[in-house]
Amino acid sequence: MNGLAVVEITKMYGTQPAVDHISLHVPRGELVCFLGPSGCGKTTLMRIIAGLEQPDSGAIVLEGQDITRRPVHERNFGMVFQALALFPHLSVAENIGYSLKIKGIVASERQARVAELLSLIDLDGVGQRRIDQLSGGQRQRVAIARALAQQPAVFLMDEPLSALDARLRDHMQLEIRRLQQKLKITTIFVTHDQREAMTIADRIVVMANGRVQQIGTPSEIYHQPANRFVANFIGQSNLFEVQSLGGGEVRLGDATLAVARVPADVAAGATATLCIRPEDVLLGAPGTGLLQGDIVQVRDLGSSIDIRLRCQHTDILASTTAAHWRPLSAYTRIGVSFPADAAQLLSH
């Protein structure tokens, strides 16, 4: 098996599992995000992969070799953490080339590698500047270049963008994605920001309470959430308690709704959760649709309009465009329906 494999890793803190029997595979050259709320175990798992902590059980396998007990300095992993830990007394070039100097790489080869990395991160001509003369985004790129200098087998990043402002953070997400795709380095990126994960990842590992909730592409995670936690954590969702009627139909209040995908463990008569994304809620004139909703709140966000409705004692969030909203804006009551192919049924 190429790339990196995590095999049944468990880590206990006292009687509480921080990481609970997690297994996953990161193919060579893939960028995978560990995503979840604070305390879910994502950073602990990354630290175990890095060798900074030892698991209580399980194995870390790199390119078919068990490296679970291999020291950090023998793993050839590049790491960038939230605290960049750049050396303020060294120049940009000296920071980037520091690990090469420690390894005894001759000066000419070291300088060539640093120049190559400065070009890669679009910082040509700033090699002699001090770290305190750089912007936040430039410092971030220097930290990435320093980690890449040793040509790591695996690149680990633990919430490296959390200290940046929103605009710069968006830019750096695209930069990291560009660099990773160009270099094809196996990369693990830890974040609690679902938008960040959706932007940069080939696949996302959603975690909660030390366990993996779902592994999939951003599209799979968003459109086919495995359970209620994932549906709630990734984006916005309308979640309804419904009763399965069998044959791909469910009962929501007094209405019957067709559902395209029904989990195998949801039998007729069973209670389940119906997940509808706001942009999939269809709005129409009063008297049309599956349900009738009273408008509670309208938020004009420029590129979209969010409408909060009250339908049969249940709040529903819909998202539409200004062009579609104008014909309905005169109403205080709106018809609501859900397309079957957008209705996701989740088992309890």
Can you describe what's shown?
By secondary structure, the chain is of the alpha+beta class. It folds into two domains: 4-228, P-loop containing nucleotide triphosphate hydrolases (Rossmann fold, 3-Layer(aba) Sandwich), CATH 3.40.50.300; 237-346, OB fold (Dihydrolipoamide Acetyltransferase, E2P) (Beta Barrel). It has helices at 42-50, 92-96, 98-102, 107-120, 136-148, 166-183, 194-200, 218-223, 228-233, 322-325; strands spanning 4-13, 16-26, 31-35, 57-62, 65-66, 77-80, 154-158, 186-191, 203-208, 211-216, 238-246, 249-252, 255-258, 271-276, 282-284, 291-300, 305-311, 314-320, 333-337, 344-346. Strand 16 and strand 17 form a beta hairpin. The chain is globular, with a radius of gyration of 25 Å. The two termini are 34 Å apart.
Could you state the oligomeric state of the chains shown?
Answer: single chain
Per DSSP, the total helix count is: 10
CATH superfamily of the largest domain: P-loop containing nucleotide triphosphate hydrolases
What would you say the CATH architecture of the largest domain is? 3-Layer(aba) Sandwich
The largest β sheet comes out as: 6 strands, mixed
Task: Describe the structure using short key phrases.
348 residues, alpha+beta, Rossmann fold, OB fold (Dihydrolipoamide Acetyltransferase, E2P), 2 domains, five-stranded antiparallel beta sheet, 25% helix
Write the layout of secondary structure elements.
Layout: E1 4-13, E2 16-26, E3 31-35, H1 42-50, E4 57-62, E5 65-66, E6 77-80, H2 92-96, H3 98-102, H4 107-120, H5 136-148, E7 154-158, H6 166-183, E8 186-191, H7 194-200, E9 203-208, E10 211-216, H8 218-223, H9 228-233, E11 238-246, E12 249-252, E13 255-258, E14 271-276, E15 282-284, E16 291-300, E17 305-311, E18 314-320, H10 322-325, E19 333-337, E20 344-346
Parallel strand pairs: 3-8, 3-9, 6-7, 7-8
Antiparallel strand pairs: 1-2, 1-4, 4-5, 9-10, 11-12, 11-14, 12-13, 14-20, 15-19, 16-17, 16-19, 17-18
